[in-house]
């Protein structure tokens, strides 16, 4: 029996050159002062994206200040610092410009700019305080420059607790942290390197796969997930090989946004719990790389448990949706297609040990996955024990 809620309040402006519409869109949040959140790498400055956004907002009489300290796995101290700057300067809305880390941070900053205390006071799992926001966050504008997280189309912010011993990377959000406006311009993604294109593209791929398998799925997420899986399976290798191919970049941008919508209608499952533990222990590990490195072991476990919907995903990755697969081969067909995709985007030679992961820490990684993001196991289609999680990590490490 169908039983679901459908809610998506974000206005999305999509397509090549749509960034220019920021200068005249009537859908910009009200106010004359914005904080633009960017990463510390300097890419938004070097590529001219920051100055373009500032100029376009100036056309709408919006003054801007910039927070430029966000790291690839953003930390809670950065959120608290930027939020304090927003309050001190009377900021009216927050713009996240860049990859998923900066847009996620913008959401968290917008929440804390309007509320007292520290960000971790409001995180609902791990050592989070579990508090509820008393006031609505500032409005959020998302401008992604990568095709990966889909955060422009969902309310989630993934932030790591600051502190060398914290090792907690948690997704948090609610209806109030959806972006008010998202501008998805595929031309902003030309500057992404082939390797980063592969990492982010695989992130979007697993968002779609996981939301299709989640027990909280619904018809809208099913349709969009299969669309995203099909498009990424056929287009990501081309986007990696031909970084300046506008058609490939546009298809990947839509696939990422579609997978983000899936995270609003459905949810990711415990593959993300396992990866969040990995990159909490090893912040230098790109999220998409971590997901890829555990994927064959993780979905191999699901296939061994007889998860039938893997067959739908295998067909979506194939050349035709008219093929039929029997129950014994659906999981293997998906694993074969996944293996081909990982090879075709050039990630087949990477290992967990490349990022400092050791076999000795696997039990601690399993405990972290089961506690900090343990709620995602509740919507995973098969039951998983601690021993199962350890076995998946062990198989991935090998």
What's the structural domain tally? 2
Mean pLDDT: 95
**Share of β-strand residues:** 5-15%
**Can you tell me the CATH architecture of the largest domain?**
Up-down Bundle
Radius of gyration: 20 Å
Give the N-terminus to C-terminus distance in angstroms. Answer: 41 Å
What's the name of the CATH homologous superfamily of the largest domain?
Dehydroquinate synthase-like - alpha domain
Spans where pLDDT lies below 50 across 5 or more residues = none
The helix/strand order is EEHHEHEHEEEEHHHHHHHHH
The CATH topology of the largest domain is Dehydroquinate synthase-like, alpha domain
Number of helices: 13
Helix content: 40-55%
CATH class of the largest domain: Mainly Alpha
Plain-language structure description:
It is a single chain. The chain is α/β, with parallel strands linked by helices and 398 residues long. The protein folds into two domains: 11-189, Rossmann fold (3-Layer(aba) Sandwich); 197-397, Dehydroquinate synthase-like - alpha domain (Dehydroquinate synthase-like, alpha domain, Up-down Bundle), CATH 1.20.1090. Helices cover 46% and strands 11% of the residues. The chain has helices at 43-46, 49-59, 76-89, 100-113, 194-213, 219-241, 246-265, 270-281, 287-304, 310-317, 330-344, 362-372, 386-397; strands spanning 11-14, 33-39, 63-70, 93-98, 140-144, 157-160, 169-172, 181-184. Strands 1-8-5-4-2-3 form a six-stranded parallel beta sheet, with helices on both faces. It has a two-stranded antiparallel sheet with strand order 6-7. α3 crosses α4 (100-113) and α6 (219-241) packs antiparallel against α7. It starts with 10 loop residues before the first strand and ends with a helix.
């Amino acid at each position: 029996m169908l039983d679901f809620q459908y809610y998506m309040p974000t206005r999305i402006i999509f397509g090549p050159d749509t960034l220019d519409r920021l200068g005249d869109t009537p859908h910009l949040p009200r106010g004359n002062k914005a904080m633009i959140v960017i990463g510390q790498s300097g890419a938004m400055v070097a590529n001219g994206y920051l100055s373009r956004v500032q100029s376009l907002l100036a056309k709408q009489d919006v003054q801007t200040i910039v927070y430029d300290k966000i790291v690839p796995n953003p930390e809670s101290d950065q959120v608290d610092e930027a939020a304090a700057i927003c309050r001190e300067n009377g900021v009216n809305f927050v713009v996240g410009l860049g990859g998923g880390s900066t847009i996620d941070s913008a959401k968290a900053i917008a929440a804390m700019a309007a509320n007292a205390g520290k960000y971790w006071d409001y995180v609902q799992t791990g050592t989070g305080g579990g508090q509820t926001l008393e006031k609505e966050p500032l409005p959020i504008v998302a401008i992604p420059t990568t095709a990966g997280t889909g955060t422009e189309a969902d309310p989630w912010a993934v932030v790591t607790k600051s502190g060398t011993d914290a090792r907690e990377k948690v997704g948090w959000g609610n209806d109030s942290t959806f972006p008010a406006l998202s501008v998805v311009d595929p031309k902003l993604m030309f500057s992404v390197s082939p390797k980063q294109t592969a990492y982010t593209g695989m992130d979007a791929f697993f968002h779609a796969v996981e939301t299709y398998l989640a027990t909280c799925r619904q018809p809208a997420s099913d349709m969009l997930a299969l669309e995203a899986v099909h498009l990424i399976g056929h287009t990501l290798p081309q986007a990696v090989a031909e970084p300046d191919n506008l058609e490939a970049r546009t298809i990947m941008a839509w696939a990422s946004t579609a997978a983000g919508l899936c995270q609003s209608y459905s949810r990711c499952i415990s593959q993300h719990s396992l990866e969040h533990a990995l990159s909490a222990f090893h912040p230098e590990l790109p999220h998409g790389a971590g997901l890829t490195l555990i994927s064959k072991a993780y979905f191999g476990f699901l296939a061994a448990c007889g998860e039938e919907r893997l067959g739908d995903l295998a067909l979506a990755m194939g050349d035709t949706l008219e093929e039929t697969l029997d129950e014994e081969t659906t999981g293997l067909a998906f694993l074969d297609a996944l293996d081909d995709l990982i090879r075709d985007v050039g990630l087949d030679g990477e290992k967990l040990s490349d990022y400092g992961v050791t076999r000795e820490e696997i039990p601690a990684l399993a405990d972290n996955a089961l506690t900090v993001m343990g709620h995602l196991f509740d919507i995973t289609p098969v039951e998983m024990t601690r021993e199962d999680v350890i076995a998946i990590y062990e198989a991935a490490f090998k």
